[in-house]
Design goal:
- By secondary structure, the chain is an alpha/beta fold.
- It has one domain.
- The chain contains 7 helices and 10 strands.
- A 6-stranded mixed β-sheet has the order 7-2-1-8-9-10, with helices on one face.
- Helix 2 runs antiparallel to helix 3.
- The longest helix has 16 residues.
- The chain is globular and about 55 Å long.
Length: 244
Amino acid sequence: MDHSKSIAISQSNYIPWKGYFDLINSVDEFVIYDDAQFTKRDWRNRNKIVTNRGLTWLTIPLKVKGNYQQKVFDMHADGVEWRAKHWETIRHNYSKARYFHDYKAIFESLYLGSRETKLSLINYAFIAEINKILGVTTPILWSSEFCLRGDASEKLATICIERNAGSYLSGPAAKSYLRSELFIENNIEVCWIDYAHYPVYPQFCNRFDHHVSILDLIFNVGPEAPMHLIGRKTMPVNTSRSFS
């Protein structure tokens, strides 16, 4: 049985930053963790772009039941009016970017050509199209396709086991909660992506910021965008083999 497959798992984000796509591009399979509980003031329904006044949030308004006790796959946008507003903000602030008009039709269609309100599917539409632009071909699965129980670490480990993974690649934020022993005891190596080594690029901002939507990278560097997905992947310090 082949255990060489690498997997990454992450919640869906709205027009994510470049690190999200670096993570997808670094593995054999990517799983969208869509049955996690929705969290407020997070990246599920918002992200930042660069404007001439600094960074601006683009936020999808949501219909909320109770006190945000819903799973991500149950969240819906509150109407579709936000689509035109977001697109106009993007068009206004990036129309002079070098490659904006090369990709204008793609993103205009994503914003104005759909009336989808389910948040997971809205995010997926953008992620899938941006993957095409970047040349990322990693297959994408959904965590809701699995029968998951237990805490976050147990659920992530279960996905890796069911997909016959040999390694699990995670963002550094998970170091605070991930129980690596659940993976190791199933012969799954836990690897970490380091987002600290991305190159800068021309940006309409006085102070460069890596942590903005990847739309900023695409509109400013165009076909060179894939060359910016170069985060470093390493094993935990108590192991000897590097992940590449």
